Structure formats: structure tokens, C-alpha cells
From TrEMBL:
CDD domains in alphabetical order: AdoMet_MTases (cd02440)
Positions bound to S-adenosyl-L-methionine: D268, D315
Keyword Cell inner membrane (UniProt): no
Biological source species: Donghicola mangrovi
SAM-dependent MTase RsmB/NOP-type domain ranges (all copies): 154-431
Keywords: Methyltransferase, RNA-binding, S-adenosyl-L-methionine, Transferase
Active site per UniProt: C369 (nucleophile)
PROSITE patterns found in the cross-reference section: NOL1_NOP2_SUN, SAM_MT_RSMB_NOP
Annotated protein name in UniProt: RsmB/NOP family class I SAM-dependent RNA methyltransferase
Sample GO molecular function, one term: methyltransferase activity
Record family assignment: Belongs to the class I-like SAM-binding methyltransferase superfamily. RsmB/NOP family.
Length: 435
């Protein structure tokens, strides 16, 4: 592809993402399915630019406000071309107006916008800090309270492209073999800093083409997510519930940890996600698993199986603030639409209901990919106050290796401090005498 064709393709994809409520990776996969002619190298370039655009959205729209323009994807893209690609108004006119170009020619006001942005830089001294750091207003107060003086550094880290983390499935492969396979593809791969089955890869690559991913020998999984699954500390032969299993990211890791022995039940209220979970478990060669569709967190199945499990993981639905660097679009999907308070209340209900499944001496692990105290420490405090049969197990007692990553007695990972997604996890144990 020519540089012009790549830019126009990025613009087309950006418009598709902007007008779609689905997560950006779902939109991009659909878009590329219809553009199979695009070579891998160009695909990487288009995706990189798209994600960079999404990471600059507050700053781009600040400039549009300053010049009295609306936030249409076309205006955002024009601002991007002027401010980040340093294109002159003439360059931009040529880009949009060419005879073979699908994008319509620049109007006079659009030309003037690019002209007014000429020579400006993306950041401006008048920009509020939250705009510079791309922090949405719905989360700003909580994140400032959580991070204090480290707020700017933590937010800046959410704006950096994340590494690609893989988890090797020990049922199908060894980490050494996978490191070799990646090196054969001329990719720089090394063992993850913390996760025992993790590999961190740098370099651009269309992972869909990596045979080990297709065969279930490796999974793409952030190192933080791998560590949360490890905290469940499921042993071969245990009975385990993954209460909010989704498409099974953590179920797969837990099942592997159990070496295919014992039973793990993946529950969720989403039929589609559970179906994907089953497919992935089958592909990964995990036979100690089943899926269970719940009507709600208080499904009758929960009552029927109370006190029946050694380990229960609640990877609760959350604001996703910990995944902003990986999913830059999510910070602009205001959870207030569904209600952050509603989400917090749902987390409390899920935790209370899932706790009933834990047998005496068994453990409940509460986790989120959120960095908001309201969804993390506050949930645990409220749960322990209402459930005196449970106590918090200090992280150092579960995994001494991770204790240094703890905030108090719970696991608290952030992109700035650990170069993982933001994750929280607390291990709660039911006393041996039931209430
Ligand atoms: C953070 S995601 C889980 C991600 C998954 N554990 C993984 O590692 O890939 C939260 C999941 O909770 C599910 N969920 C939402 N409400 C629920 C409820 N009331 N009971 C059980 N699961 C629920 C959602 O469908 C979603 O799949």
C-alpha cells in the first residue's frame, strides 16, 4: 500500500470504530475480514495509527473545541494529520481530494481548520491536566484520590502501547519451545518478569498467523491476568468455580494449573462468552471443565451447590480502568451510562452470592481489572463486614513471590508500576467452622 492508501484506510477504520458501540478489537477484526487484500505489514501500520489516534482523543477534541468545530471523526482525523503527522493544508487537500480517493474533498472550513492548526503541537499550555493525560471526567476524582502524587505518572503509563504477553499452556507446550518458535519468526521474546508461564514479545506481528495460538499451545493474556489466575492457587483434584468466566481467559489458566485433574466450572450470564469459553477450553486440551449459564448471580444452581467448592474466583464486571492502555476506546465509554454505582452494587451482589459456594477452609478470590478503590478495596471491606465467616488472607501467605507487588494485603498492579494492565485481587478464606 502507498502511504496515502494507508492513511485513508486508517481514516475509514477510525470512522467505523467511532460509529460502533462494540469494543474496538471487534470492529477492527470485522473491518479487516472485509479487507483481506491488506498485507500484514500495512495492517500493523493501520492498527498502530488507529490506536495512537484513540490515545489522543481528548487532546484532539480540545483543539476542535478551541476552533469551534464538532468532534466528528473527520474533524478529529484532520486535527491528527495537522498536529501529529505535521501535514500542511495542501498535503491534506491532496490526500482527500485525489481522483481515486473514496474520502470526499476538503471543504473550505475544513481547509481553514488545518490551516489554523498548522505549526501547533498536540499539547498546549492552556490544556487542563486531565485533558493532557486523557483522563475522562467520570474517573478523574477517584483516580486522583487513589494515586495522589503519582496520578500523572500512572495516567501517562495508560497512554503507552502495551507489550504483547502470551501464556504458554503447559498441557501442550513448554515455554522454552515457544520462545524458540517466536525467535524463529524473528520476534524478540523473553520470559515474563513475574508469571511462570508468561512470555513477553516485542515487534509487530499478526498473531492470528502464529500456529501455536491456533492449536491452543499459547494464549494471548496480559501478565496481570495470569497472576490473578495464579492467586486462585487451584490444586490438581480441587473443585473450582470461575463465577464470571466470560470467554475463559482465566479459566484456561486455572485449568492448566490443575493439570487437567479435578473439576472447574465456568459460569457466566452471557451465553455467547461461555460458548467461546468452551471452544477455547476444548482447543487447549482441557477436559476437567464444564460451563454453566446462570440466569443471574442468584441462579438456583448457586443455592444447590453451596459450600461445595475449594476455590471460587469472582473476576467481576468492572469499569475496566486497568485496561485503558490495551483498550483506549473504553475510557471514553462512560460507565455512567450503565451507572458506575449500579456496577458497584452488582459487584457486591455477585461477591455475596458466589461466596455461598465456598466450602469451609476454601477460598474466594475477588478480582477486577479496575484501578478504582470503590470497586476494589471498598468492596472487600464491605464484604468482610457483612460476612464474618471470611477473613482476608495476606498476599504474602498465598504467594510470597508476589508479596512485593501488594498494596497492603491485596494484589494491586498498575501499568506504571508493574508494566501490566491494572489489576486488583484479594484472597478471602472461609473459616473452617461454617456459620
Ligand atoms: C471481567 S469479565 C470476565 C473476564 C474473564 N474472567 C477472563 O478472564 O477472560 C466479567 C464477566 O462477568 C460477567 N457477568 C456480568 N454479570 C454477571 C452476573 N450477574 N453473574 C455472573 N457473571 C456476570 C460478564 O458477562 C463478563 O463475562
Amino acid at each position: 500500500m502507498t502511504p496515502t492508501a494507508r492513511l485513508l484506510a486508517t481514516f475509514d477504520l477510525f470512522c467505523a470504530v467511532d460509529g460502533d458501540k462494540r469494543p474496538v478489537d471487534a470492529v477492527t477484526s470485522g473491518w479487516f475480514r472485509n479487507r483481506r487484500d491488506i498485507p500484514d505489514q500495512d495492517r500493523g501500520d493501520i492498527l498502530e495509527r488507529l490506536y495512537a489516534l484513540l490515545r489522543h482523543r481528548a487532546r484532539l477534541t480540545w483543539w476542535l473545541d478551541k476552533h469551534g468545530r464538532d468532534h466528528s471523526p473527520r474533524h478529529q482525523f484532520l486535527a491528527w494529520l495537522a498536529l501529529m503527522e505535521r501535514k500542511s493544508p495542501e498535503d491534506v487537500s491532496r490526500l482527500f481530494g485525489g481522483p481515486k480517493n473514496a474520502a470526499t474533498a476538503l471543504t473550505k472550513p475544513e481547509y481553514n481548520l488545518v490551516l489554523r492548526l498548522k505549526g501547533c503541537t498536540i499539547e498546549h499550555p492552556d490544556m487542563p491536566e486531565a485533558v493532557r493525560l486523557e483522563c475522562p471526567s467520570w474517573a478523574e476524582q477517584s483516580l486522583r484520590a487513589r494515586f495522589g502524587g503519582a496520578f500523572a505518572a500512572e495516567m501517562a503509563a495508560t497512554l503507552t502501547p502495551p507489550p504483547v504477553d502470551l501464556r504458554v499452556n503447559p498441557v501442550k507446550a513448554t515455554r522454552q519451545d515457544m520462545l524458540q518458535a517466536l525467535s524463529d519468526l524473528k520476534l524478540h521474546a523473553e520470559v515474563s518478569p513475574l508469571a511462570p508461564h508468561g512470555i513477553r514479545v516485542s515487534g509487530r506481528f499478526n498473531y492470528a498467523r502464529f500456529p501455536a495460538l491456533k492449536s491452543g499451545a499459547v494464549e494471548i493474556q496480559d501478565e496481570g491476568s495470569q497472576l490473578v489466575a495464579l492467586l486462585v492457587d487451584a490444586q490438581p483434584g480441587d473443585r473450582v468455580v470461575d463465577f464470571c468466566a466470560g470467554a475463559g481467559g482465566k479459566t484456561l489458566a486455572i485449568a492448566a494449573q490443575m493439570n487437567n485433574k479435578g473439576r472447574i466450572i465456568a459460569c457466566d450470564v452471557s451465553e455467547g462468552r461461555l460458548k467461546r469459553c468452551s471452544e477455547r477450553l476444548r482447543n487447549a486440551g482441557m477436559h476437567n471443565t464444564e460451563t454453566r449459564l446462570l440466569a443471574s448471580e442468584t441462579d438456583k444452581w448457586v443455592k444447590r451447590h453451596k459450600l461445595g467448592f475449594d476455590r471460587v474466583l469472582v473476576d467481576a464486571p468492572c469499569s475496566g480502568t486497568g485496561t485503558w492502555r490495551r483498550n483506549p476506546d473504553t475510557r471514553w465509554r462512560d460507565p455512567e451510562e450503565n451507572g458506575l454505582q449500579n456496577l458497584i452494587a452488582l459487584q457486591g451482589r455477585i461477591l455475596a452470592s458466589a461466596a455461598r459456594l465456598v466450602k469451609p477452609g476454601g477460598r474466594l478470590v475477588y478480582a477486577t481489572c479496575s484501578m478504582l478503590t470503590e470497586e476494589n478495596e471498598d468492596q472487600v471491606t464491605a464484604f468482610l463486614a457483612a460476612n464474618p465467616a471470611f477473613r482476608l488472607v495476606p498476599l504474602g501467605d498465598v504467594t510470597p513471590d508476589l508479596a512485593a507487588k501488594a498494596q497492603g494485603d491485596t494484589l494491586s498492579l498498575t501499568p506504571a508500576r508493574h508494566d501490566t494492565d491494572g489489576f486488583f485481587a484479594a484472597v478471602l478464606q472461609r473459616e473452617t467452622t461454617p456459620e
